[in-house]
Amino acid sequence: MRVRHGHKGRRLGLTSLTIAASGLLALLIGVAFTVLLWAIEDANSSTSARRASRSALVEAGDMEQLLVDMETGQRGFVITGQDAFLQPWEDARCRFPAEARRFTGSATSPAHRRAAEEITRGIESFIEDYSIPLVEAVRRGDPAASSLSVSIRGKERVDALRGRIDQYVKDERKQLAGREDAAEANGRQAVLAAGVGLTASMALVAVFTVLQHRAVVRPVRGAAAAAQRFAAGNLGVRISPSRVAEIGALGTSFNTMAASLQDSRRRTMESVQAVHQRTARDLHDGAQQRLVSLMIGLRLAREMLPDTETATADLLDQSIGNAQTAINELRELASGIYPLVLTVKGLVAAVRDLASRCPVPAVVESAGERRAGSAVEANAYFVVAEAVTNVVKHAGATRIDIRLDFTDDLRIEVTDDGVGGADAAPAGSGMTGLADRVAAFDGTLTLDSPPGGGTTLLVRIPLPAPDDGH
Fold this sequence. Notes:
By secondary structure, the chain is α+β, with helices and mostly antiparallel strands. 72% of the residues lie in helices and 7% in strands. The chain contains 10 helices and 5 strands; from the N terminus they run H-H-H-H-H-H-H-H-E-H-E-E-H-E-E. It has helices at residues 14-80, 86-105, 110-140, 148-231, 245-304, 310-337, 340-344, 347-356, 374-395, 430-439, and strands spanning 362-367, 400-405, 410-416, 444-448, 455-461. A 5-stranded mixed beta sheet has the order 1-2-3-5-4. Helix 9 links the parallel strand 1 (362-367) and strand 2. Helix 5 (245-304) runs antiparallel to helix 6. The longest helix has 84 residues, at 148-231. It is rod-shaped, with a radius of gyration of 56 Å. The two termini are 15 Å apart.
């Protein structure tokens, strides 16, 4: 019996493998979605920051416009002395407290807030320390209020404040551009990371599908096919080892069961073969020898009988003929049970003897002839005998070719030129019995029988090496 050993090492449980793959897949998908959520949150934060920067820029523009309106109204009143020019100045003074609060409140960073507060204090100082005193001096008719030095000092203060507002705007625009660049870069990185994560997840799903097919689906299909062949009577079928624990356990149990049944069938066949061999020997050494002795006695009695006793002589001749017929029939019966030549000379000689008695011309060829053990030889002989009987009964053949090859394994080929169309599938057929005999010794049987093209039966039975004493 051939024993197939499984893989060494620790086997992976199907449940453990599934949990590990599912956990890794969940981790990859979780990381991918976490990155996407982070990207969405970063995009929302960037949008809010850009909106706040734009609001700060608008407020800075409004503050600068308020300063310009105040300076323009003030200058017109100083030049003309008409109160109508003070209207923009008055409006600017009224709007300044609220505008100052909005301006400082729109700052997007602590540094910008400090800068906005400094600008607000500068404008407030310009109003309180320069603009209001100047307007009141003009109203009083103070000629110094219209002097060039006063005008130049006012312009310098306004230009300085506008310069600070312009710098504030530049810093805010620079910060806005930096935020937009960072948001764009973060978005690209997030999309890339999410894409990599999703791609890895899809790759993991594909790899797990392939592994599952190789580790589970394919072995299960193989086990199903082996079970079908086993149910059909092929006890030599085995399931290949698997590194998946559950599939490996299934294969080990199946192989153990198949090996046990095969050994049981083999022992049964060996027992039957031993009984047949003993029965044939008993028939040959017992009943057949006694019939031969009886026939010899009858012949002696016939020779001793006078010629005048014709009636008695006829009776003795008839008895001698009946004894010879009984001996021949007993010899055929013993040969059918277990041919003596198989024990004495081996399989090839027994098959040649079988071919010599076949009603269809049969040619026997052999190669690498050697003894193969009594059980193997007996079953191989009866396989050939059953195949020849089927040809004689059903094939309508004019020739049978039998080839026995012992070169490696025992290879038996029985070919005829009959009608073909033989089928090994039907349960209970002669072919099923042949397959059972062959399977009991780890052998294989194949049948090639196209309609009208004759039939070839090929049997292979493993043999031990020629030098191992068998």
